[in-house]
Amino acid sequence: MKKFLNTADTYLTDALAGFAAAHPDLSVNLESRVVTRARGAVPGKVGLVSGGGSGHEPLHTGFVGEGMLDAACPGEIFTSPVPDQVVEAVRAADSGEGTVLIVKNYTGDVMNFEMAAELAGEEGRRVETVLVDDDVAVEDSTFTAGRRGTGATLLVEKIAGAAAARGDALEEVAAIGRRVDAASRSFAVALTACTTPSAGRPGFDLPEDEVEVGVGIHGEPGRRREKLRSASEIVSDMVDAVLDDRPLESGAEAIVVVNGMGGTPLSELYLVYGEVAALLEERGVSIVRNAVGDYVTSLDMAGCSITVCEAEEGFTDLWDAPVSTPGLRWGI
Amino acid sequence: MKKFLNTADTYLTDALAGFAAAHPDLSVNLESRVVTRARGAVPGKVGLVSGGGSGHEPLHTGFVGEGMLDAACPGEIFTSPVPDQVVEAVRAADSGEGTVLIVKNYTGDVMNFEMAAELAGEEGRRVETVLVDDDVAVEDSTFTAGRRGTGATLLVEKIAGAAAARGDALEEVAAIGRRVDAASRSFAVALTACTTPSAGRPGFDLPEDEVEVGVGIHGEPGRRREKLRSASEIVSDMVDAVLDDRPLESGAEAIVVVNGMGGTPLSELYLVYGEVAALLEERGVSIVRNAVGDYVTSLDMAGCSITVCEAEEGFTDLWDAPVSTPGLRWGI
Amino acid sequence: MDIELARAWVRAIGAAVERDRERLGELDAAIGDGDHGANMQRGFAAAVDAVGAMSPESVGAVLTKTGTTLVSKVGGASGPLYGSAFRAAGKRLAAERAETEEVGAALSAALEEVRRLGGAQAGDKTMVDAFAPAVDAFTRVAGSGGRLDEAARAAADAADEGLRATEPLQARKGRASYLGERSVGHLDPGAASTALVFRALAEAAGA
Amino acid sequence: MDIELARAWVRAIGAAVERDRERLGELDAAIGDGDHGANMQRGFAAAVDAVGAMSPESVGAVLTKTGTTLVSKVGGASGPLYGSAFRAAGKRLAAERAETEEVGAALSAALEEVRRLGGAQAGDKTMVDAFAPAVDAFTRVAGSGGRLDEAARAAADAADEGLRATEPLQARKGRASYLGERSVGHLDPGAASTALVFRALAEAAGA
Ligand SMILES: Nc1ncnc2c1ncn2[C@@H]1O[C@H](COP(=O)(O)OP(=O)(O)O)[C@@H](O)[C@H]1O
Ligand SMILES: Nc1ncnc2c1ncn2[C@@H]1O[C@H](COP(=O)(O)OP(=O)(O)O)[C@@H](O)[C@H]1O
Ligand SMILES: [Mg+2]
Ligand SMILES: [Mg+2]
Ligand SMILES: [Mg+2]
Ligand SMILES: [Mg+2]
């Protein structure tokens, strides 16, 4: 395994310590593993908390800050946080207006956040949960744990964060977060497997001429393997998968995220975005906003995900609203 | 070779086309290979132009925009742009106040920009050149082409860009750019080699347990090979190399960039930053600003560079000034 | 089962997941995200410390503390599941000693909790496929007057059997379900750790 | 040398760098950034088109056009160097035909331009180490009344010799100099392309 690290066991703490040193406007509790805004909860504002396994940076810790999250609780690598962490984060985020939990739909995340929500409730705190489940590689049926939460998490956290900053009430913030998730679909392809510090070797072996199609963000294998093809062929399949699941009519407006998995250079992501833009234009869909870069990663995996979110009433204004976090910043 | 691409020959054009589609506030000429602000030269402002081989994204195209560059000219991958491109960029950037060329110190870049500067001069344009040469892995002697320009380019382009935006005159903008370069030193380590689309395979073979120390940003081998060691050992050698070349006294203030080469996940970069911060603290140097992320990359290379720039009078204010580019944004 | 045996059981699980950490991780890497070994090791190492540090008044106190520790240290799917399971079992054993049949009832309560929380049916390729047959075997032997070590050994064998039976199954719950047919042909990591849990009980009781 | 031969020379270079693109790229990957093959191929393919499309009045016009095209198409270090070299040579050959000695003088001017621009000395492990001996050999043969094909063949052989001699050298100019001692033991890519340039002249003249 080739990584900048000291020991596999200290990887996460060391990385969080560096994150803390780099961002004095955030406060990082290395003990409780909770990242909050240094200034604390914002009086009169609904709190926004998210978290999940680590290894997806900048998600979620990198999205704590003005206009987005109030607190994040990073779990072990690819392991959802424990209820204590989440409760700790809720306490830090709750100004009395209640807290929205943004949870990616994985069995572990859902169970741990549910337990945390119960505990927070027992403390008399109002908590609403927004489940993110945008990955169409997983059919949403009784034969699965349901669609995974992936690239759309960026959109949900930004847009719900802006709604909270604007002063929306608990139920309203949760509602718009759910609308964003409902309007979003994603699909991912991996060119290489990622290596977790503890495993020390790639999660799966992928021949030099094959790709994993329909992968998640935890290094798990995808739905199937395919021969590596041209970007235009791969992307057209990805866009089909996304739009077959949730068709967009000609004339529709969309926010598109081309998200790198961590090991893919920006120039490739732009190349992919160019293909997506052309395909959507063919279908008469106009992209009103876009984000191209590493947002929801999978350690050093080479690959990308494509997220298409129909820009419903109000989404773009909230997307454009000022945000100041390590991973996303404008207007401030 | 595993990349999202159509053909090696179209890689650059396709990536630029995607970049153009993603950033409507920039105008990208795929013919002349020049990226400019859509609104064109800013009346009364000194123009800022940079360029170099492609494969270092977001550098330089991603730094075109308010508060930073007026135009960039991306060459072929790892190949400096041709004089025509540079002249084209100068024409687009020059509002009559003259233009500063920011050139990374490589034989090819220097010669092509020099030729361009001559041509622009023949058109009666005032041009000043700022050479960036921060990489201490290369000794600055008659036995080499001189130190390479690497991570400090981010600082020079941001700070000189802010000076130009503030209304500084041609000589002043060039002068502060040179001061930033003179105050900066960098050193890089690679864990893997990068693969150019045309070569189709890694530039050098690196055993699973070895790293290249003192690499540049063009996939060239470094000064030497070493066994992979712990992050704290590697980083402490890197920081020593940087500070031995340009010592900082206790009490000095610095701007630090921990720059990813393209294939290294953000969590590792933060881990590295944590080590750097601790080492500088030991030496009594306080980091007043930092940037951790992918800024000056080398395609898919895994690795990072550390840049330490002494924060001289005025640097931090100009660093903090509003900037709105695809690769760097705040305050706007 | 007395307090010391309960403690010994937790220590035996800790030793087992420490030893098989890699194997559990590889099983999880094949159809999940590869962290199950680390999760179990982290959780039970903490549980061993916790139950070692306390002076429990009851068998249940040991198991409840184990469950609470797992919940607060593991995360992922297995944390809440094993954690709640041990807590549910602990609730049922309020005395200093527990008859084998009482232990069986406690294990049944634990299984119920796993079913309730995770919603997995038999055959979904989860820990339930090892947990359920183990509890059945335990209660059967206990019901016919068998000793704890006998019941535990039967449970461990049944769990191993259930684990083996997960290989041909297609996962319908948890991460492995994302793979669809590709989950077929692999053992379920959680079923594998469950088999370790019951084998550890047999060892502790046999000693 | 007449206009047609000048054109044939450029075409021969184009064919050679097309054929050896990979090899030049690998030489450059070893001690540089691997783009020399692509650079030469891109540049001379454009030059072949350019000189094919024009109706030149002089030998020099062909070489000047070649140089201008290289400058505007290649980039990197080799673009300005080869481009300026061909332009310098072109300036000296204003007539429809050029005597072999005149060609030698033009080649000397080209070499001077490379030296001036790049500042490389003999032994710095650059194209100069092939260029300089080639020009010496050419002018020597031309000076003693040799024909163009004879002079060109001598130049090509000297360039090959100069190329071979770059292997043990440590680079002092260009990217390869960044490697310090690690540049020793490799041929210089630019010297390799220079050898192709002179071999192409010999072929064209011999034909
Ligand atoms: N809904 C569920 N019901 C019962 N057991 C489950 C469920 N989901 C997952 N599991 C068990 O959890 C195991 C995975 O645990 P672990 O890898 O630690 O958590 P995660 O899947 O979050 O990484 C699976 O092998 C399976 O046995
Ligand atoms: N200062 C110089 N003087 C003469 N030749 C040089 C100089 N610098 C580089 N070269 C030649 O250029 C060659 C590299 O060309 P190329 O790879 O196309 O450009 P780059 O080095 O910019 O990638 C080297 O092999 C060397 O022969
Ligand atoms: Mg997990
Ligand atoms: Mg080059
Ligand atoms: Mg797992
Ligand atoms: Mg080169």
Please, could you describe this protein's structure?
The complex is a heterotetramer, with 2 copies of chain A (332 residues) and 2 copies of chain C (207 residues). Chain A is an alpha/beta fold and 332 residues long. Chain A has 8 helices and 14 strands. Chain A has helices at residues 11-22, 83-93, 107-122, 152-166, 170-182, 231-245, 266-282, 315-320, and strands spanning 26-29, 34-37, 47-54, 71-77, 99-104, 127-132, 184-190, 210-213, 224-227, 253-260, 286-293, 303-310, 323-324, 329-330. In chain A, α7 (266-282) links the parallel β10 and β11. The N and C termini of chain A lie far apart (39 Å). The mean pLDDT of chain A is 97. Chain C has one domain: Alpha Horseshoe (Serine Threonine Protein Phosphatase 5, Tetratricopeptide repeat), CATH 1.25.40. Chain C has helices at 3-19, 21-31, 36-53, 59-73, 78-91, 100-118, 128-143, 148-165, 189-206. In chain C, α4 packs antiparallel against α5 (78-91). The longest helix of chain C has 19 residues, at 100-118. Chain C starts with a helix and ends with a helix. Chains in contact: A-B, A-C, B-D. At the A-B interface, α1, α6, α7, β11 and β14 of A face α1, α6, α7, β11 and β14 of B. The structure holds adenosine-5'-diphosphate (2 copies) and magnesium ion (4 copies). One magnesium ion binds at residues 28, 32-33, 35-36, 76, 175 of chain D. One magnesium ion binds next to loops of chain C. Chains A, B: This is Dihydroxyacetone kinase subunit DhaK. Chains A, B: Keywords: Kinase, Transferase. Chains A, B: Residues 7-330 form the DhaK domain.
N- and C-termini, Cα separation of chain A: 39 Å
Structural class of chain C: mainly alpha
Please give the alpha-carbon distance between the first and last residues of chain C. 12 Å
Report the radius of gyration of chain A as a whole number of Å.
19 Å
Mean pLDDT of chain C: 97
Count, helices of chain C: 9
Assign a percent range to the helix content of chain C.
over 70%
Integer-rounded radius of gyration of chain C: 16 Å
Domain DhaK (chains A, B): 7-330
Organism (chains A, B): Streptomonospora halophila
Keywords (chains A, B): Kinase, Transferase
Protein name (chains A, B): Dihydroxyacetone kinase subunit DhaK
